[in-house]
Records
---
Amino acid sequence: VQLVQSGAEARKPGTSVKVSCKVSGISFINNYLDWIRQAPGQGFEWMGRIDPEDGGTKYAQKFLYRVRITADTSTNTAYVEVINLRSEDTGVYFCASRGTKGVFWGQGTQVAVSS
């Protein structure tokens, strides 16, 4: 099982970033795909998740209006896009696929937001 995420990103405040997560070795459509963030020196923060089978999403209240999670079943790839970036969005973004066979994590993508 592999969840391979896109590379590190550097952005300025007010811009947007889109991180990808390509899943292999397990069924993409039969597992929820979560996005979790870890800011420097802080714990993990759940951002939201998508059901790739029907595209249904759920977001943490904090991210409801600035985060969009999508999934492309033709490439088994999920995406998280954060708009109107702020310095506090700096951190490592992880994807995780969870289903009956367990939870599998991507390697993490560093996103740095600074002016």
---
Amino acid sequence: VRLVESGGGLVQPGGSLRLSCAASGFTFSNAAMSWVRQAPGKGLEWVSTIYTGAGWTNYADSVKGRFTISRDNAKNTLYLQMNNLKPDDTAVYYCRYGDTRGQGTQVTVAS
């Protein structure tokens, strides 16, 4: 299993970013996939999950209405569209399959 995140960066409050996670080594289309994040000095926080089939999704209350998780099974890629970003969204973002995470991508929200 290999997960490689990208798309992080520095953005001003209210801005947007789109994270990507390239997956390999397993049948991506059959996998429930998640995004989790870790802010400085804090533990790991679940952000969102997308399931297979109809693509049912679920979000943490802290990001609901601002973040959108999606997947492209043809490209074995998971996405996280993040809008109206806030300083509290600053964290390293990881995609997760089961107990496996990638190396993460840093998102910093600051003016």
---
Amino acid sequence: VELVESGGGLVQPGDSLRLSCEDSGSTFSAYNLAWYRQPPGKERVLVASISMSHSTAYTASVKGRFTISRDNRKSTMYLQMNRLTSADTAMYYCYAERGSREFWGQGTQVTVSS
């Protein structure tokens, strides 16, 4: 598994972004996936997760604004982020897990500022 994020950038409050996380391997569908974020000077925290069966979960602060999804045919996970605020500014990381195996991407920066 090798995870590569893309789609980050500088946006204004209220804007939308879609992050992508692509895996170069062939076992993508066998992993539970998640997006984490790490704001400047703070710890990395879970934002949203999606299981192998496509069950999803979100942290309270993004519920109703963010949508996590996966396309196993493309070995890609997405995070659609709407109504962004400055509190969403962070480095966003994708994560894959199966049992004792876990993998991280290198991160993509999201900055929300007027």
---
Amino acid sequence: VQFVESGGGLVEVGGSLRLSCAASGLTFIRHNMGWYRRAPGKAREFLARIHRSGGNPYYENPIKGRFTISRDNAKNAIYLQMNDLKPEDTAVYYCNTDPPQQNAWGQGTQVTVSS
């Protein structure tokens, strides 16, 4: 199983980014998928999930109303549209199944929000 995240970068407060995640080595459509992040000096945290069907998105409070999770089962991919970014969103962002497969974490993609 492999996840490859992309789309991170440096953005100003209030800006937007769209993260992508390409999954391989698993039957993608059988899995709920999630986005996670690790901020400097903090543990990795769960952010959002999307059902294997593409419905029932769920968001943790820090990102609710600003981020949108989606998936394309034909491409074995999930996405995270991030709007109204804040300095506290600075982190390395990861995708994985939900619940996560602990041996399958990718390198992540760095998001840095400058104030």
